[in-house]
Design brief:
Shape: globular
Oligomer: single chain
Structural class: alpha/beta
Largest sheet: 8 strands, mixed
CATH class of the largest domain: Alpha Beta
CATH architecture of the largest domain: 3-Layer(aba) Sandwich
Number of helices: 13
Order of helices and strands: EHEEEHEHEHEHEEHEHHEHEHEHEHH
């Protein structure tokens, strides 16, 4: 396998793009770069024990086998330079990324999608072929705790994460069953959707970008709730899902993520699925330990292709 050079072309410092880039770099021992005004010899901390090097676009263009791990509008200005190169690959994570400059550049690149729904959308909507690969997952060392007594959410607090569903459920739950909410905030979402709720009562803040921080959160977690729902996406995995499974947490998903799509996730088999706050409240109040044990065991099978990381 030819070694790739990873380029992170986005501003966010938290979330799935960051996790993806770190896991791929660690799993395959790939170098990571960001595009800057000048090339720096000293590397910087990216998170999750990964380092990156700032490099000018002129030096970036000298690299072989470039893989763009994520891109946002802050870096669109470099697409014309990269379109001129051979053997550039870009990862498309979800349909929200398919906008003007990116869409125009995609025919010049090889495309990888990490969910089959996105692969299908690209082909049907934009007639673009892509290669589907499972999210790579780096098996970092952990110490598992047999005592599982907290329920948490670790996604970004954002429109597509539907944190308001969790807040609504918490209002009806006894304190020992409430979901502790962690993650970076989208201030616009908080203002429009959460300002008149009890969100601040349940929000515990951001957490560090290290595997130790993840272990501190998930080691005694029983239910990990992720209410993600994205139009023209879903069915597959996200890093919050995989991290929950890795730590033997029971995954609770939004029905909009799994309904009417081809998905390995099955309610009561390897996860639970709820559609709204009342259903989430009911689940967290009353659930079967026998079913929970089965879900934890079956979910491990979902993790296997991610641990193998083939194709990257």
């Amino acid at each position: 396998m030819v070694k790739r050079n990873l380029i992170y072309m986005a501003k966010p410092i938290y979330g799935g793009w960051v996790s993806f880039t770190a896991h791929l770099s660690l799993k395959k021992n790939y170098n990571l770069y960001k595009i800057g005004n000048k090339t720096e010899q000293k590397k910087r901390q990216y998170g999750y024990s990964v380092e990156y090097q700032n490099m000018s676009i002129n030096d970036i263009k000298k690299l072989d086998n470039i893989l763009i791990t994520a891109i946002d509008k802050s870096y669109y200005k470099y697409l014309d330079d990269l379109k001129q190169l051979n053997n550039v690959t870009i990862v498309i994570h979800d349909p929200t990324e398919l906008k003007g400059d990116v869409l125009d550049a995609l025919p010049y690149f090889k495309i990888i999608t990490i969910r089959k729904t996105v692969q299908k959308y690209l082909k049907e909507k934009h007639n673009l072929k892509s290669k589907f690969l499972h999210h790579p997952f780096y098996a970092f060392p952990i110490e598992k705790n047999s005592i599982k007594n907290t329920n948490i959410a670790i996604s970004r607090v954002d429109f597509d994460k539907h944190t308001d569903i969790i807040v609504g459920a918490n209002d009806k739950l006894p304190k020992n069953k409430q979901v502790q909410i962690y993650g970076a905030l989208n201030d616009l979402y908080v203002y429009h959707k959460l300002r008149d709720t009890n969100f601040k009562k349940y929000y515990k803040g951001k957490f560090g970008k290290s595997f130790e921080d993840l272990m501190n959160l998930l080691n005694n977690c029983k239910f990990m709730v992720d209410m993600s729902a994205i139009k023209n996406d879903g069915g597959g995995s996200q890093y919050t899902f995989l991290e929950a499974i890795y730590f033997d947490c029971i995954l609770v998903l939004n029905s909009k993520w799994v309904d009417n799509v081809n998905t390995p996730f099955s309610n009561g088999v390897n996860c639970y699925v709820v559609k709204d706050s009342p259903e989430l409240t009911k689940l967290l109040k009353n659930n079967s330990e026998n079913v929970n044990k089965k879900i934890i065991k079956n979910a491990k099978l979902l993790l296997e292709p991610h641990l193998k990381g083939r194709g990257w």
